[in-house]
Write a structure and sequence with these properties.
Blueprint: H1 3-14, E1 18-22, H2 30-37, H3 51-55, E2 66-73, E3 85-86, H4 95-113, E4 119-122, H5 130-136, E5 141-142, E6 148-149, E7 157-164, H6 184-188, E8 194-195, E9 198-199, H7 205-210, H8 219-223, E10 227-229, H9 233-236, H10 256-259, H11 263-268, H12 271-277, H13 282-286, H14 288-296
Parallel strand pairs: 3-10
Antiparallel strand pairs: 1-2, 2-7, 4-7, 5-6, 8-9
Helix pairs in contact: 1-4
Bound molecules: iron/sulfur cluster (SF4) (2 copies).
Length: 300
């Protein structure tokens, strides 16, 4: 078996759902520059920084020759919210930690094949255009909702990258786009944040609940649909997510206590209770004050 096949097998055995290989060639950045020109990054000032690094992955690790793109299916199975809603990706353990640990294990294996290899790992943590890299590595296409969509797991995937200093033959980029004439995500978005392949974060509930700092924008009051951390609407309606398979990683299986949380419970919860309930999840990073503020702004 060739080294590349061995790495793929190992990745599978560690729990990765998809793996692909690509080169660190520069990325044509028209879509990013246009997005920034329109101010669609809203308060995410960090998106305006390090554009050169985003478009030239080779600057992130001197000597990089290969980028391994990895996807993990986090779909927790059917989730029937009782009251307020927390995005599925945030119901389980923080994916940054879980994936980094898995990637380190994979790199240890790669080291056994290529002792000279050096690497850097990224999980939503550096100026890396993860979705475009995943597309180039053959994992899927970028849908009209701007998410990476895979044929097997839809868009319920976390992405991560291993930048490697050894050369491994790249996979074929995913050059097809299976959105076709579908516009479900665009039509379902309650705030009009989406147009094909373009997300205006200024209008996005996910941005407001996770990233935004300061006064909560007015549109949130009557268009939140109960979302207090993230928003899955444009994924819930995607036909490619209908046949999603439940994740095999128990780290991403949510405690029912988090799914069935109510606004009453959140409103009366002490800081200690909040820390206990959301320990190790992305929600904890949003913080007690912000979540309570959002809950107090939900429409009746
Ligand atoms: S996350 Fe919600 S608000 Fe944001 S684009 Fe998708 S449906 Fe619209
Ligand atoms: S809902 Fe339709 S248009 Fe939107 S990402 Fe899915 S397939 Fe593409």
């Amino acid at each position: 078996m060739k080294e590349k096949e061995k790495i793929k097998k190992k990745a599978e055995s560690l729990g990765f759902s998809k793996i692909g290989f690509t080169t660190p060639q520069s990325i044509k950045g028209d879509f990013l520059l246009q997005w920034l020109r329109k101010g669609a990054e809203a308060g995410m000032a960090y998106m305006r920084r390090y554009t050169e690094l985003r478009l030239n992955p080779s600057l992130l690790l001197p000597g990089v020759k290969t980028i391994i793109s990895l996807a993990v299916n986090y779909y927790p199975g059917d989730v029937f919210y009782k009251d307020v809603k927390i995005s599925r990706y945030a119901l389980g353990r923080d994916y940054h930690r879980v994936m980094k640990k898995m990637m380190k294990e994979l790199f240890s294996y790669i080291k056994s094949l290529y002792p000279e290899a050096r690497a850097r790992f990224f999980v939503d943590s550096a100026p890396v255009l993860e979705r475009e890299i995943a597309r180039r590595a053959g994992l899927g296409w970028i849908g009209k909702n701007t998410m990476l969509v895979t044929r097997e797991y839809g868009s319920w995937v976390f992405l991560g990258e291993i930048f490697l200093t050894v050369e491994i033959p790249p996979d074929r980029p995913f050059d097809r786009n299976f959105c076709g004439t579908c516009r479900r995500c665009i039509e379902a978005c309650p705030t009009g944040a989406l147009s094909p392949y373009f997300l205006d974060s200024n209008l996005c509930i996910s941005y407001v609940t996770v990233e935004h700092k300061g006064k909560i924008p007015d549109f949130y009051f009557n268009k939140n649909n109960g979302w207090i951390f993230g928003c899955d609407i444009c994924q819930e309606v995607c036909p490619w997510n209908r046949k999603a398979k439940k994740t095999s990683l128990k780290d991403f299986l949510p405690e029912p206590e988090r799914i069935f949380i109510t606004r009453e419970k959140l409103s009366s919860m002490s800081r200690d209770e909040f820390q206990r309930l959301f320990k190790g999840t992305p929600v904890k990073r949003a913080g007690y004050e912000k979540i309570r503020k959002l809950v107090s702004n939900l429409n009746p």
